[in-house]
Design goal:
67 residues; 1 helix; rod-shaped
Length: 67
């Protein structure tokens, strides 16, 4: 009976540890999603700025060739 009780306590401990790890993993996944969304927004902004740069650069080249 003592062995059975020890095994029950160990099982309860391992279950609690597993639940904590699952919560930690869920939080990490949520943080990854947020990070990926932020990277996506940054990528979009970089694309926008590249277009603006190309337009400005083309305008400068045009002005230089006219002078």
């Amino acid at each position: 009976m003592v062995e059975l009780e020890r095994l029950r306590r160990e099982l309860a401990y391992r279950k609690q540890l597993s639940e904590q790890q699952n919560q930690m993993i869920a939080q990490q996944r949520a943080q990854l999603v947020v990070g990926r969304e932020e990277i996506s927004r940054i990528d979009s902004r970089v694309d926008e700025l590249q277009v603006v740069f190309q337009i400005c650069f083309s305008g400068i080249i045009t002005l230089l060739t006219l002078t």
